[in-house]
Amino acid sequence: MDKIRVTVWHEFRHERHDGSAKDTYPNGIHAVIKEFLDKNDDMDVRIVCLDDPDQGLPDELLNNTDVLLWWGHGFHWEVKDELVDKIVDRVYTGGMGFIGLHSAHHSKPFRKLLGCTGNLEWGDSIREVVWNLCPTHPIAEGIPKAFELECDELYSEPFFIPKPDDLIFGGWFEHGNIFRSGCTWTRGLGKIFYFQPGHEDCRSFYNPYVQKIITNAVRWAKPADVKVINKCPYSGEGFLKMAEPKYFD
Amino acid sequence: MDKIRVTVWHEFRHERHDGSAKDTYPNGIHAVIKEFLDKNDDMDVRIVCLDDPDQGLPDELLNNTDVLLWWGHGFHWEVKDELVDKIVDRVYTGGMGFIGLHSAHHSKPFRKLLGCTGNLEWGDSIREVVWNLCPTHPIAEGIPKAFELECDELYSEPFFIPKPDDLIFGGWFEHGNIFRSGCTWTRGLGKIFYFQPGHEDCRSFYNPYVQKIITNAVRWAKPADVKVINKCPYSGEGFLKMAEPKYFD
Amino acid sequence: MDKIRVTVWHEFRHERHDGSAKDTYPNGIHAVIKEFLDKNDDMDVRIVCLDDPDQGLPDELLNNTDVLLWWGHGFHWEVKDELVDKIVDRVYTGGMGFIGLHSAHHSKPFRKLLGCTGNLEWGDSIREVVWNLCPTHPIAEGIPKAFELECDELYSEPFFIPKPDDLIFGGWFEHGNIFRSGCTWTRGLGKIFYFQPGHEDCRSFYNPYVQKIITNAVRWAKPADVKVINKCPYSGEGFLKMAEPKYFD
Amino acid sequence: MDKIRVTVWHEFRHERHDGSAKDTYPNGIHAVIKEFLDKNDDMDVRIVCLDDPDQGLPDELLNNTDVLLWWGHGFHWEVKDELVDKIVDRVYTGGMGFIGLHSAHHSKPFRKLLGCTGNLEWGDSIREVVWNLCPTHPIAEGIPKAFELECDELYSEPFFIPKPDDLIFGGWFEHGNIFRSGCTWTRGLGKIFYFQPGHEDCRSFYNPYVQKIITNAVRWAKPADVKVINKCPYSGEGFLKMAEPKYFD
Q1: What span, in angstroms and rounded, lies between the C-alpha atoms of B223 and B105?
Q2: Could you report the per-residue pLDDT of D74-112, keeping only the tens digit for each?
Q3: What is the model's pTM?
Q4: Do B185 and A177 touch (CB under 8 A)?
Q5: Which one of C156, C161, C247, C248 makes the best mutation probe of the D interface by having the most chain D beta carbons within 10 Å?
Q6: What is the DSSP letter of A82?
């Protein structure tokens, strides 16, 4: 079987400038993600950053990516709209999976893919318990009913996202807040997963359950073997032309 | 009780140029929609067109619209992105309802609101039977299990939309095709309904069940009395600042 | 408009025998529910108990109930299967709304209506915060983003219920647990709402937000004006006979 | 990897008595299903019938079944309630997959598992087109946008089922009817799929797409590797006892 071509896109600013993030992830969050995904024989993992040429995603790479992981936090607005459009098209019509990590809830690709603001409330990092609400889902495989994170950034409801296809994880925060921490959606031919843990100065990406969930999600989000085309036969500017509807391929 | 402030936005090009559309809707589709909605004491209905100043939706009107109906077919690309952004924001954070009629599946506001291409397949107008799949939904109130339309434009699956919150109507077309003809979604504080019948040279908007469905949808889509704010406390460009998460308003 | 005919079914054992429950609800939980529902001009509220004749629900009453509220905790197994079958049929084919309160998650009607065990984990009463996850839903009307209950019985995920149509409220418990505290489903022609707060020795039913939610739920769950019949034309024992499928009523 | 232990339960009355069914499936529908499933190295397929001892499902077999396929049409009421309870428990708490074929919509296990009547309308066999509404779902793998069945029994909306987790296939019938022909649900630890084609005197089970769909569904419905227990810690008759809620296994 062909390997899943995984690309981890990382903002990679905090760990270069911020003492606490630097201490937690000396080589960047993307390096840690690559390290645990690389243990899987069925994955071929590449890491790229905002400050790389073409903001890390030249066409050649994007068009050869099966699953894109996205971590961004403080510099969402720097990502160019042209790149966002290419990512969205690759998900909708190419079936690329998209996994939004932590603050990706506010990233341009996440908002545009789903159609939402991604707004939420937040606060200082604090103890979190992640609950497994959908134990039969492939992304929850091997995950116990709950696990604890010593700390992660407090993300709280109300979280303004489209109703998830599946709500897989729910977060409990010591401060009194809850959050829909693991959610799936389908858009066009692509699958999307959002997962909340992963602040830059918390150690969540070293947690074995977090690693297992992200690993499961990569397998779940890989493009399906689809025989259906997600294109209008004739469209573009001008009057829509008549297509002959046939129900055989 | 305050009246529902309804605005019917209409492309209004076909009926001015195209003989068949002109014969079917001499004063435009919007005039017919206004006529049947005006029979309801709880609605205040305004009609506007693409060729009006500000493309029909100056801020003053948009900000005083509770439910926006949208019919566009051949000139989607003329609608300005700035207007689309305002419409989307009014739905997400203002709670305005949006009802997409017929070819609005490809309109800019519909695609951006939901996050999808809205792609489908289509063909010549043909006999349709509309089935009621969710008889307890407020939008299906008073609708029998099925009703017939002498003809409407053939819209066919695969229809590339996000999974609907509720699938209320399903269309059967004589040619061998089916379609998810009536679907709801929620985005931010706003409600969205898509309804497929309504080609410019078919008489569907004169059908009493179509009129009943659109009337029901206006009532369903009006803004809820919401005590929750759909805004991030601090956002914008630059690092996100810390908000104090409080669970009381 | 006709009033909504509401029947509150209550186990009413704890408050008669248990000091703490008796102190909290001297006349029973049902009396408190009736008291706050009675403030609504559009409702006609009756209260009945497990130890009443016909276990509180003679046919005459059941067949004239629009919305049935159900509170049971320790004596679920005493409710007769024949009565459960009648309740389920009244929901499925008569469109009666069913509101399960607190431990009704394990009641016979709840399990049979939905098809589930209703299993969960639980513990001592403790501080709870109820979060509003679906602010545009009619049941959430007037509810802030969260409200606090001084204490309620700890109910925890994993909660084995069918995926809700809408997940409206989520509970945070001080001990480290979360719970899907307010959920809706549709079955046949009837609507179902489950709401978790309401232990017999906690004061949740005096909370104005809890009262508002239950009041909203009664209005939401009342039978819709349905033109569709939820009966097979010919069934029963023996071979199924042919029905002529017609799509007009 | 261990093989998926598949059991095909078949009513097997029609093909023994009815000329047309006998001609179509001389050895019974179950024999044809076994034949095409046997081509998969990852499946171990057993066939059983209503008239076998223990109605085909002794405990030993049921408890060693990963996925149960069920075809019944005219003799649903003969299946004993005790057997139905065992099947439901095996799905809810054991994670067994359940695939209901054709008239299984009215079978006792299907109704009890989901909580519904399964009512629908029907008519003579007629030409059907099956549409693929969810092309990225594992059950739709390798299925084109639509395929045709020369004839199958007309099943029509309104179909009284709980809202599906995923609506994968939709049926078009020449007579003017549509049907939600392929639907999934989750209950407890088990997955459920319903698929409409398969009347006893139509040749649908010989259709390669029907065979592919059922094959896909078996793989999808096999029990997940679940670390979560679907049992209340203490329950049964008598007051529920206190459990200590722990979020670590």
Answers
A1: 22
A2: 899 999 999 999 999 999 999 999 999 999 999 999 999
A3: 0.95
A4: no
A5: C247
A6: H
